[in-house]
Design a protein that fits this description.
The complex is a heterodimer. Chain A is α/β, with parallel strands linked by helices. Chain A is built from 12 helices and 9 strands. In chain A, α6 runs parallel beside α7 and α10 packs parallel to α12. By secondary structure, chain B is an alpha/beta fold. Chain B has 2 domains: about 160 residues, Rossmann fold; about 220 residues, 3-Layer(aba) Sandwich (Rossmann fold). Chain B is built from 16 helices and 14 strands. Chain B is globular and about 55 Å long. Classes of the chains: A alpha/beta, B alpha/beta. At the A-B interface, α3, α5 and β6 of A face α1, α8 and β11 of B. The complex binds pyridoxal-5'-phosphate (PLP).
Chain lengths: ~270, ~400
C-alpha cells in the first residue's frame, strides 16, 4: 500500500532534492531546549542555514532510543516545563520558515492526547507527519487511520537487524520516507557511520520505491557526504543538539548551529550518487 | 531424559499473540523485533521440549530448592482476624526470592539461542542477584543496571552481584530507580542484541516477556495449590501477593484463575499514601498508557510523561504494572489494593516477632494485605500469601526505620 502523497508531507521536498541530484538534509532538535522560544529560534536558524526538513523532537521522560546528548536536552526541557502543546508552536514556526516539520515523538505522548485528536492538531499546526521510534506498524492501526484522515506522513524505522519480511511490512506502512537506522543502537554522534547503513539502504530499496533516509551517528560534513552517496536523505540529531549544549548563551549556540548546518548542507551536495 | 509429569491443569498454557484484552503488545523500536521473535520461537519450542523441561526441573530440584515449602503462621494469623494464614516460602529459594524461577529458565534459553551475554535491570537487587547467579552457573557474561537510589538502599545485593562476577552499572538519570534501570538496559539491548539476551525480571515489557515470565513462575501456584489442598483439604478463600511488575503475583495467581471461588488479591505499594502522590499504587490512580514496550496502567501526567513512583521497597517502586494484571483487574477476576509504608513496616515487624521469619519489604506488602483481608473475612477464612523473598537485603532500611542503629550509623 503506497498511499497518495499529502500536501503537508515531505514528498515534495524529497522530490525536489532528487531532481537536484542530491540527498536532503534533515535536522533534529528537541522542543524546549534550552527553552521553548530558544528551541524554536534554533529550528528556524537551521532552516535559514539550509536544512530541507526539520525533525521536531518532543521531549519524553523515558527516551529509550536516545543517547546521552538528547537525553540531557530532553530532561532539561521537561524540567523547564516544556509541554506537548509546545510542539505545535514549533511546527507552525518551522512551516512558516518554509520547510516541512516532521515530529519525532515517543508513542505514549500521542496516545495520551488521543491518536486522532493529536493528528488533527498536528495537521492544523502545519505538521508534516510523525516519526515514531517506539511504534511499529503492527501496533499502529489507529495511527495509520488517523494519518490517512488528516493527510500526514508516517515514518517508521527499519534497522540493520530487520529481516526482509520486516522490511516489506514496515515500508509498506510508511508514507513520506523510510527511516533507516545506520547502526544498532541509540542516537548519538559516532566516529564512523556503520558500513551496515549502505547495505540496509540497498535491502530497503529492494522492497520499496519510497525515499530512504539514514539517521543515527552522522555528525560531520564528510559523513553527510558519504551517506548522501547512497541515501535520499541524511538525518542529523545529536551533533546539532550539542551546538546548543556547548554554548554559554543562546546566540553563541545559534551561531554554532548555523555553521554546522551549512557544513552538513554542503556535505549532502557533495555525495556522489 | 524423562519429562516431569504434569497433572491436568498444570501444563503450561498455549502461547498467545501477546495481548491481554487491550493490554500488552510490542511498543519497541523495530531494531528489537527480530530478537523478540527469536525469543518467542525459542521459548515456545522449549516449553514443549522434554529435554528443556527436564533440565529446568533438575535445576529447580537440585539448585533452586524446589518445591518450596508452605508454612502455616498461626501466631501471625492471630492478628489477621483469626483467619488461617499459610505462606508460600519463595524466600527459601536459592538467592532468596522467587526471581530465580524465571532467571534459570531464561538463562537456559539464552544458551539455547547461542547468546553469550545477559543483561538485566534490578530494583531490589533480587533479580540482579539471581541473574548474576545464573550467569556464573552457566558461564555467561553479565551486566546489571540498577538505579543509583537503589544501589544505595540495597547495598548488600550490589556486593553479592559483584562477588558473583557481574558488572553493576548504577543509573543516575531520571528517578534513578527501577524504571530508569530498564531504560538503560533497553538501550544496551538495542545496541548489542546480536550477542546479548535481555533477561527481563518481571511480567512487563514487550511480548513475549509478560507471558513467558508468568509461565516460568507459574510453578509457584501449581505447587502451592496442591500443598494447600494437601494440608487443609480445600482451596484458599484468597491468594494474596505483592505487585511490583507483578511476576510473583502472576506466578502464584495463574493456577488459581479457573478456581472461581478463590479471590486473587494483589497488593501494591501505597508509599506515603495516595494524597501525598508518593506511592506506586497504579491501580488506585493510574490510567492506560505505554511504558517499556507494553500497554498497561501507567502513572503519567496529562501529557503522557511518566510520573515517578515511590515506595520504601525498591522492588515495588515502578510506575507501571504487568499487562496481564491490568486485564485481570478490568475483568474483575483479580482485585488490587495497596499498603502504605507504615502498614508494611508494621506487618514486617509482626512476622519477625511472631514467627521468626524476616520477609523482604516487598513481600511485607502481601502480609499487610493479609492482615486486612483476614480481619474482613474472619476466623473461617483460609489465606494463601506469597512470601516472595527474604529480608536480609532490607535490614539497613528496617534498622533505620525502627531506630536500631547508633546515631552515627544512621
Ligand atoms: C522479594 C521480591 N518480591 C517482589 C518483587 C516485585 O517484583 P514482582 O512484582 O515482579 O514480583 C521483588 C522485586 O524486586 C522482590 O525482590
Amino acid at each position: 500500500m503506497t498511499a497518495p502523497t499529502s500536501p503537508l508531507g515531505v514528498a515534495g521536498v524529497l522530490d525536489t532534492c532528487r531532481a537536484e541530484g542530491r540527498a536532503a538534509l534533515i535536522g533534529y532538535l528537541p522542543v524546549g531546549y534550552p527553552t521553548v522560544e530558544g528551541s524554536i529560534a534554533a529550528m528556524v536558524a537551521m532552516v535559514e542555514a539550509g536544512v530541507d526538513i526539520v525533525e521536531v523532537g518532543v521531549p519524553y521522560s523515558d527516551p529509550l532510543m536516545d543517547g546521552p546528548v538528547i537525553q540531557h536536552a530532553a530532561a532539561t526541557a521537561l524540567a523547564g516545563g516544556t509541554r506537548v502543546a509546545d510542539t505545535f508552536a514549533a511546527t507552525k514556526a518551522v512551516r512558516a520558515a518554509g520547510v516541512p516539520p516532521l515530529v519525532m515523538s515517543y508513542w505514549n505522548l500521542v496516545l495520551r492526547s488521543g491518536v486522532d485528536a493529536y493528528a488533527a492538531r498536528l495537521a492544523a499546526a502545519g505538521g508534516a507527519g510523525l516519526i515514531t521510534p517506539d511504534l511499529i506498524p503492527d501496533e499502529a492501526d489507529d495511527w495509520i487511520a488517523a494519518s490517512e484522515r488528516h493527510g500526514l506522513d508516517r515514518v517508521f524505522l527499519v534497522a540493520p537487524s530487520s529481516t526482509d519480511e520486516r522490511l516489506t511490512r514496515v515500508t509498506s506502512a510508511c508514507r513520506g520516507f523510510v527511516y533507516a537506522a545506520s547502526t544498532m543502537g541509540v542516537t548519538g554522534a559516532r566516529d564512523t557511520v556503520g558500513g551496515g547503513a549502505e547495505h540496509l539502504v540497498r535491502r530497503t530499496r529492494a522492497v520499496t520505491d519510497l525515499p530512504v533516509c539514514v539517521g543515527l551517528g552522522v555528525s560531520t560534513r564528510a559523513q553527510a557526504a558519504q551517506v548522501a552517496g547512497f541515501a535520499d536523505g541524511v538525518i542529523v540529531g545529536s551533533a546539532l543538539v550539542r551546538c546548543l549544549i556547548q554554548a554559554r548563551e543562546l546566540d553563541e549556540g545559534l551561531e554554532a548551529l548555523r555553521l554546522l548546518t551549512a557544513e552538513l548542507a554542503a556535505g549532502v551536495r557533495e555525495g556522489r550518487r | 531424559m524423562t519429562q516431569p509429569s504434569t497433572a491436568p491443569g498444570e501444563e503450561t498454557p498455549a502461547a498467545t499473540t501477546g495481548r491481554f484484552g487491550p493490554f500488552g503488545g510490542r511498543y519497541v523500536p523495530e531494531a528489537l523485533i527480530p530478537a523478540l521473535e527469536e525469543l518467542d520461537e525459542a521459548r515456545q519450542k522449549a516449553m514443549v521440549d522434554p529435554d528443556f523441561l527436564a533440565e529446568l526441573d533438575r535445576l529447580h530440584r537440585t539448585y533452586t530448592g524446589r518445591p518450596s515449602i508452605i508454612t502455616e503462621v498461626p501466631r501471625f494469623a492471630a492478628h489477621a482476624g483469626g483467619a488461617r494464614v499459610i505462606l508460600k516460602r519463595e524466600d527459601l529459594n536459592h538467592t532468596g526470592s522467587h526471581k530465580i524461577n524465571n532467571v534459570l529458565a531464561q538463562a537456559l534459553l539464552t544458551v539455547r539461542m547461542g547468546k553469550r551475554r545477559v543483561i538485566a535491570e534490578t530494583g531490589a537487587g533480587q533479580h540482579g542477584v539471581a541473574t548474576a547467579t545464573a550467569a556464573a552457573l552457566m558461564g555467561l557474561e553479565c551486566t546489571i543496571y540498577m538505579g543509583k537510589v537503589d544501589t544505595e538502599r540495597q547495598a548488600l545485593n550490589v556486593a553479592r552481584m559483584k562477588m558473583l562476577g557481574a558488572q553493576v552499572v548504577p543509573v543516575e538519570h531520571g528517578s534513578a530507580t527501577l524504571k530508569d534501570a530498564i531504560n538503560e538496559a533497553l538501550r544496551d539491548w538495542v545496541t548489542n542484541v546480536e550477542t546479548t539476551h535481555y533477561l527481563l525480571g518481571t511480567v512487563t515489557g514487550p511480548h513475549p516477556f509478560p507471558e513467558m515470565v508468568r509461565d516460568f513462575h507459574r510453578i509457584i501456584g501449581v505447587e502451592a495449590r496442591a500443598q494447600v489442598l494437601d494440608l487443609t483439604g480445600r482451596l484458599p478463600d484468597a491468594v494474596i501477593a505483592c505487585v511490583g511488575g507483578g511476576s510473583n503475583a502472576m506466578g502464584i495467581f495463574h493456577r488459581f484463575v479457573p478456581d472461581a471461588g478463590v479471590r486473587l488479591i494483589g497488593i501494591e505499594a501505597g508509599g506515603e499514601g495516595i494524597p501525598s502522590g508518593r506511592h506506586a499504587a497504579r491501580f488506585a490512580t493510574a490510567s492506560p498508557g505505554v511504558l517499556h514496550g507494553a500497554m498497561s496502567y501507567l502513572m503519567q501526567d496529562e501529557d503522557g510523561q511518566t510520573v515517578e513512583s515511590h515506595s520504601i521497597s525498591a522492588g515495588l517502586d515502578y510506575p507501571s504494572v504487568g499487562p496481564e494484571h491490568a486485564w485481570l483487574r478490568d475483568t474483575g477476576r483479580a482485585e488490587y489494593r495497596y499498603a502504605t509504608d507504615e502498614q508494611v513496616m508494621e506487618a514486617f515487624a509482626l512476622l519477625c516477632r511472631t514467627e521468626g521469619i524476616i520477609p523482604a519489604l516487598e513481600s511485607a506488602h502481601a502480609l499487610a494485605g493479609a492482615l486486612e483481608v483476614g480481619r474482613e473475612l474472619g476466623p473461617d477464612a483460609l489465606l494463601l500469601v506469597n512470601l516472595s523473598g527474604r529480608g536480609d537485603k532490607d535490614m539497613h532500611t528496617a534498622a533505620r526505620y525502627f531506630g536500631l542503629l547508633d546515631e552515627d550509623e544512621s
